[in-house]
Amino acid sequence: MSGTLVLVRHGQSEWNLKNLFTGWRDVGLTDQGTAEALAAGEKLKARGLKFDIAYTSALKRAQVTCQHILDVVGQSGLKTIRDQALNERDYGDLSGLNKDDARKKWGEEQVHIWRRSYDIAPPGGESLKDTGARVWPYYLHEVQPHVLRGETVLVAAHGNSLRALIMALDGKSGEEIVKLELGTGVPIVYRLNADSSVAKKEVLEG
Ligand SMILES: O=C(O)[C@@H](CO)OP(=O)(O)O
């Protein structure tokens, strides 16, 4: 057995609550989102997890979630790397629009394709495949080496950047991964083997 990788989607953001396409727009957490981030920290603390390094995106909803978790586990000053490679999928021209208004304008089916197809990008934005093309190499070069050295690594990021990671870790197809809905503030704990295959995966729900 090698190291441990903990993935956490940020807590509820102001725009999750308002039902707006968010992407790279930099919005904060709601009170509920803050509570979810703190609860994620409590779950990890209850398991006795101590991190060696943390990674997060260039967006504050993930950064603040990361910091809340580190505060709860008693590691407020832990080295934390912020990189836009871990940012949410860029929603392009849809960013800032209300998801229901978009359905009225373009139809349910088109909006569903933009939100949950694997390789069709929304206008001016990224498909999940495009997101994976930046997230996965970053993970392989920057994050995974720590895990393979036996360290425990926290990655606080976003619904779609984490989907892209989970797709590769779990060996899922594009069609399968778009059906996976990640809860806000729900830690996913992977134990990796020395050859980087997954030894164990646990989703800390509830
Ligand atoms: O708005 C977004 O950036 C994402 C994540 O909240 O939404 P979706 O559920 O459409 O992937």
TrEMBL record:
<feature type="binding site">
    <location>
        <position position="61"/>
    </location>
    <ligand>
        <name>substrate</name>
    </ligand>
</feature>
<keyword id="KW-0312">Gluconeogenesis</keyword>
<protein>
    <recommendedName>
        <fullName>2,3-bisphosphoglycerate-dependent phosphoglycerate mutase</fullName>
        <ecNumber>5.4.2.11</ecNumber>
    </recommendedName>
</protein>
<comment type="similarity">
    <text>Belongs to the phosphoglycerate mutase family. BPG-dependent PGAM subfamily.</text>
</comment>
<dbReference type="InterPro" id="IPR029033">
    <property type="entry name" value="His_PPase_superfam"/>
</dbReference>
<dbReference type="Pfam" id="PF00300">
    <property type="entry name" value="His_Phos_1"/>
</dbReference>
<dbReference type="GO" id="GO:0004619">
    <property type="term" value="F:phosphoglycerate mutase activity"/>
</dbReference>
<dbReference type="InterPro" id="IPR013078">
    <property type="entry name" value="His_Pase_superF_clade-1"/>
</dbReference>
<comment type="subunit">
    <text>Homodimer.</text>
</comment>
<feature type="binding site">
    <location>
        <begin position="115"/>
        <end position="116"/>
    </location>
    <ligand>
        <name>substrate</name>
    </ligand>
</feature>
<comment type="function">
    <text>Catalyzes the interconversion of 2-phosphoglycerate and 3-phosphoglycerate.</text>
</comment>
<feature type="binding site">
    <location>
        <begin position="22"/>
        <end position="23"/>
    </location>
    <ligand>
        <name>substrate</name>
    </ligand>
</feature>
<feature type="site" description="Transition state stabilizer">
    <location>
        <position position="158"/>
    </location>
</feature>
<feature type="binding site">
    <location>
        <begin position="159"/>
        <end position="160"/>
    </location>
    <ligand>
        <name>substrate</name>
    </ligand>
</feature>
<feature type="active site" description="Proton donor/acceptor">
    <location>
        <position position="88"/>
    </location>
</feature>
<feature type="binding site">
    <location>
        <begin position="88"/>
        <end position="91"/>
    </location>
    <ligand>
        <name>substrate</name>
    </ligand>
</feature>
<feature type="active site" description="Tele-phosphohistidine intermediate">
    <location>
        <position position="10"/>
    </location>
</feature>
<dbReference type="InterPro" id="IPR005952">
    <property type="entry name" value="Phosphogly_mut1"/>
</dbReference>
<feature type="binding site">
    <location>
        <begin position="9"/>
        <end position="16"/>
    </location>
    <ligand>
        <name>substrate</name>
    </ligand>
</feature>
<feature type="binding site">
    <location>
        <position position="99"/>
    </location>
    <ligand>
        <name>substrate</name>
    </ligand>
</feature>
<keyword id="KW-0413">Isomerase</keyword>
<dbReference type="InterPro" id="IPR001345">
    <property type="entry name" value="PG/BPGM_mutase_AS"/>
</dbReference>
<keyword id="KW-0324">Glycolysis</keyword>
<comment type="pathway">
    <text>Carbohydrate degradation; glycolysis; pyruvate from D-glyceraldehyde 3-phosphate: step 3/5.</text>
</comment>
